[in-house]
Amino acid sequence: MTRKPFISLLCPLALLALSLPGVTSHGAPPAKGSSPSVIMLETDSTRASFDPAQNGAIVSLVDKRSGREFIAPKAGPLLYELRLANPTDAAAPPIVLSEADALDVTVTKEGQSVIVKVPRHKNSLIAVECRFRTEPGSPLIFARITVKNQSDAALSNVRFPALSCPQQLGDSASDDFFLLPFCDGGVVPSPATNETGPEMSYPGEASMQLMAFYDGTSGIYLAAYDSQGYAKNLSVRRDRTQVILRPTLSHLPPALSRSEWGTEYDTVLGTFRGDWQAAADLYKSWALKQPWCQRTLRERVAAGDVPAWLTEPSLFYNYGARGYLAGKRVSNRLAQFSQQGEAWRSLLGGPITLIPTNWEKLGTWVTPDYFPPFGGEAPFSQAMADLHAKGHRAMVPVSGLKWTLSKAANIDSGIPKDLDLRSDFEQRGAAAAICGPDGKPQIFNLPVFGKNAFPTQNAKICPATAVARKVLLDPALECQRLGVDSIHADGLVGGGSPPCYSTTHGHPPGGGNWSTKAVHALLDDIRREGKKRDPNFALSIEEPGEFFIPVLDTYLCRDHRQKAWPRSSPLIGVPLFTHVYHEFMHGWGNIGLEIWKTPKPDTLYSLGMDLVCGKAPTAAVWGRDHDPKATDETQLRMLRSHFDLWHSSAREFLVFGQRVTQVPLEVPSIQISFSPLNTSKPSQELDCPSVLHNTWRLPDGRTGTVLACIAFNPIPLKIYGKEITLQPGEAQFVTP
Question: Between the CA of residue 411 and those of 82, 273, 328, 371, 731, what are the distances in Å?
Answer without folding.
Answer: 49, 54, 12, 19, 39
